[in-house]
């Protein structure tokens, strides 16, 4: 086995890393879990806050009408209308996860509003009623907002339930464009309290609606993610999310099963807007945001799906020791092969005949491959199978992640070879075994290891990728501790 085919050890891993964006203790077993640390929660919070800043505006408030007696003027009917919050600036916010759900608090935010004002009064001494109108800008300062919600598992989807939502405003400053001198004081006296409560109510209501919207979005997310047209990753949530000490643990089923060709995921718009929002969030803290744990059963399920999809066959016609793919290279080991087909090129048809079951051990992944290798002789355009060997190769892979690349090394533990059939008579299988095993250890594996040492770039997910990732293997689990960062941000730093 050589060339592209032998990279199959790593194929499973890279396949899985395709989905590393968003971990496992519950009665039901999840095979992939995400332990989102304080820092990760902070990232999600910043994301939610930015989303709120943009989705809350423009926020239209109902008009307010009131009459007031003004000395020397009389009773004035005043109206403020077309009230709109145009911008909200959040200065500081915190997130806490605990038994009572997730609480996000924002303090000292401010907002800019505009409105139209108008008044009218009439008196017996006036020939016609007096009226005037204009616009005003309003600054809302010292806004504290608290929102809490419960995160639970509803039939395999995450469900957000708003628990509490409140907003309080400290100060409101109104700046009138135009108007009479008495009007300003009048407006303040009449509307200040009402405006404050209108802003507080509107924001609480809109945030609650926001959570309901986010919830329906979460519930509508697919339960499966297609993988290269042959399988699907089961992303059904398993067990309730665990909230503790400001960390959040989510588990998904995580197994891969065979599927017919799938359509592309139906959420491009959603992801595009998420990308846009997420791209602006800076990261500083060195602690990892998320630990992704992956059980060896995930690898086994991927391996079975690949196997069932007939993807474990390779024609090997290029190896680092190309002389082994010519009958001349076998002249002294299988003399009859050379005699019958002198100086003909050969290729190897490698078929793995049972799905490999990777085992995750301390710092390595052990794998045993059972394969049939048919030797084909290529003679003037004709492919003639001449012999078939049954081969068992066991080895281990030690993966690492460095600078956004996944790499590793492969070691060979055992190698067995037996002859299955031959069209060129009997020969010394022992010699063939020694030659092949030597070629594997001294030429082919070193060659593959040089390639693996260069590493493969970690896949990105909708503009996001793992950053500062570390990979640890032990006791059936692979753990990847990582930050998540926008690809754009990475290219700048
Ligand atoms: C309402 O306010 C917006 C600005 O927030 C302004 O563009 C619009 O013209 C106003 N509508 C009326 C009827 O005054
Ligand atoms: C949140 O959900 C969990 C799991 O369903 C439940 O045990 C808990 O009582 C809920 N908390 C609140 C405050 O509703
Ligand atoms: C918005 O409000 C802030 C503080 O309340 C103020 O400094 C800023 O000038 C306002 N912006 C506009 C466009 O009115
Ligand atoms: C996906 O995982 C869930 C939860 O473990 C399980 O109930 C469901 O049967 C799985 N779906 C498939 C198609 O295997
Ligand atoms: C490779 O060998 C398998 C049997 O081991 C056979 O079914 C298949 O057709 C062969 N493929 C080629 C391209 O020779």
Automatic annotation (TrEMBL):
- Indicate what this protein is called per its UniProt record: Lipid-binding serum glycoprotein C-terminal domain-containing protein
GO terms for CC?
A: extracellular space
Keywords assigned by UniProt, alphabetized: Glycoprotein, Signal
| Lipid-binding serum glycoprotein N-terminal domain sequence ranges | 36-261
The Lipid-binding serum glycoprotein C-terminal domain, residue ranges: 284-482
Family, as annotated: Belongs to the BPI/LBP/Plunc superfamily. BPI/LBP (TC 1.C.40) family.
List, alphabetically, the Gene3D superfamilies matched: Bactericidal permeability-increasing protein, domain 1, Bactericidal permeability-increasing protein, domain 2
Q: Name one Pfam family in it.
A: LBP_BPI_CETP
- Leader sequence range is 1-26
What parts of the sequence cross the membrane? none
Q: What is the lineage of its organism?
A: Eukaryota, Viridiplantae, Streptophyta, Embryophyta, Tracheophyta
GO MF, one annotated term = lipid binding
């Amino acid at each position: 086995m050589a060339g592209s085919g032998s990279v199959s050890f790593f194929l499973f891993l890279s396949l899985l890393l395709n989905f590393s964006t968003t971990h496992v203790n519950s009665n039901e077993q999840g095979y992939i879990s995400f332990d989102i640390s304080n820092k990760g929660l902070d990232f999600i919070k910043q994301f939610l806050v930015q989303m709120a800043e943009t989705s809350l505006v423009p926020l239209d408030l109902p008009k307010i009408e009131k009459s007031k007696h003004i000395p020397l003027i009389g009773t004035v009917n005043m109206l403020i209308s077309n009230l709109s919050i145009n911008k909200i600036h959040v200065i500081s916010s915190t997130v806490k996860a605990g038994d009572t759900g997730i609480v996000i608090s924002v303090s000292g935010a401010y907002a800019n509003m505009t409105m139209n004002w108008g008044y009218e009064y009439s008196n017996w001494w006036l020939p016609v009623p007096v009226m005037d109108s204009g616009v005003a800008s309003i600054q809302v300062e010292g806004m504290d907002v608290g929102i809490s919600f419960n995160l639970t598992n509803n039939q395999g989807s995450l469900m957000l339930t708003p628990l509490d939502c409140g907003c309080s405003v400290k100060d409101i400053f109104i700046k009138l464009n135009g108007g009479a001198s008495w009007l300003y004081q009048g407006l303040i006296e009449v509307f200040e309290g009402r405006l404050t409560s209108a802003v507080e109510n509107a924001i609480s209501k809109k945030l609650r609606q926001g959570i309901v919207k986010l919830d329906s979005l979460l519930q509508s997310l697919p339960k499966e993610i297609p993988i290269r047209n042959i399988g699907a990753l089961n992303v059904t949530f398993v067990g309730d999310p665990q909230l503790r000490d400001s960390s959040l643990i989510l588990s998904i089923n995580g197994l891969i099963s065979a599927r017919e060709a799938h359509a592309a995921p139906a959420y491009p718009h959603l992801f595009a807007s998420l990308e846009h929002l997420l791209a602006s969030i800076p990261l500083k803290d060195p602690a990892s945001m998320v630990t992704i744990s992956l059980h060896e059963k995930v690898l086994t399920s991927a391996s079975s799906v690949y196997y069932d999809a007939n993807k474990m066959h390779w024609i090997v016609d290029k190896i680092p020791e190309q002389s082994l793919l010519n009958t001349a290279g076998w002249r002294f080991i299988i003399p009859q092969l050379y005699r019958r087909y002198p100086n003909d090129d050969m290729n190897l048809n490698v078929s793995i005949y049972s799905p490999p079951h990777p085992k995750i051990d301390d710092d390595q992944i052990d794998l045993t491959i059972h394969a049939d290798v048919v030797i084909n002789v290529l003679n003037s355009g004709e492919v003639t199978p001449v012999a078939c060997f049954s081969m068992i190769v066991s080895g281990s892979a030690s993966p690492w992640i460095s600078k956004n690349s996944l790499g590793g090394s492969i070691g060979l533990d055992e190698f067995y070879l037996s002859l299955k059939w031959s069209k060129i008579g009997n020969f010394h299988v022992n010699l063939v075994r020694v030659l092949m095993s030597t070629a594997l250890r001294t030429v082919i594996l070193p060659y593959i290891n040089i390639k693996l040492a260069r590493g493969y770039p970690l896949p990105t997910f909708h503009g996001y990728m793992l950053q500062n990732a570390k990979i640890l293997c032990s006791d059936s689990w692979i753990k990847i501790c990582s930050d998540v960062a926008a690809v754009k941000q990475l290219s700048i730093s």
